[in-house]
Amino acid sequence: MDLEKMMEEYKKCVGICSQIDYSNKKTINENNKAVTKMYSILNNIKNTNEENIQYFYQLLDDELAGKWFSHQLLELFIVDSKVEKKALTIIKKLSKKELGEKYWLKDYKNKKKQKT
Questions:
Q1: What are the start-end ranges of the H helices in the chain?
Q2: Cα torsion for 97, 80, 52, 104, to the nearest 10°?
Q3: Which of 42, 50, 60, 92 sits most deeply, having the most CB atoms within 10 A of its CB?
Q4: 46-79: per-residue pLDDT in tens?
C-alpha cells in the first residue's frame, strides 16, 4: 500500500467534488463517484494500522481536503480528543456559512450523546 498515492488520489477526488455544478448531471455523477472513492480509500486505511491512519491526519491542515476529511474522519474513525477537536473546528467554521453543516454537526453531537 502506497500511502502517498492514496493521499494524492483522495485529494484528486476532493478536487472533483469542489467543482460540482448541481445543475449539471455529469458533474453530480462525477462527484458521487469521487465521494465513494474517498470513503473507499479511508476504509482501506481503517483496516491497517494506527500509523497509516495518522498519516492521513495531515489532511486536516489542507484547506480544501480538510473540509471533506474532517467529516469522514469523525464518521469512520475513533480519534483522540485533540484530533476530534481539530476536525470539529473545521466543521464549526463551515457551519457558520452552510446550513447543511449545521445539521451535520447537530446530528454528530446527538449520535455522540447516544453513545455515552
A1: 3-18, 25-46, 50-56, 63-76, 81-95, 99-115
A2: -30
A3: 42
A4: 989 989 999 999 999 999 999 999 999 999 999 9
List the grid coordinates of 51.
500509523
Is 10 exposed, middle or buried, given 0-12, 13-18 or 19+ CB atoms closer than 10 A? Answer: buried
Write the DSSP symbol of residue 9: H
Whether 1 has a pLDDT exceeding 70, the answer reads no
Contact indicator for 65, 14 with CB cutoff of 8 Å: yes
pTM of the model: 0.90
| Residue 3 CB-half CA count within 13 A | 14
Q: How far apart are the first and last CA of the chain?
A: 35
Rounded Cα gap, residues 103 and 45, in angstroms: 27
- Show Cβ contacts of residue 41 under 8 Å, excluding neighbours closer than 6 positions: 6, 9, 10, 13
Is the separation of the CB atoms in 115 and 92 below 8 Å?
Answer: no
Q: What is the pLDDT of residue 54?
A: 94
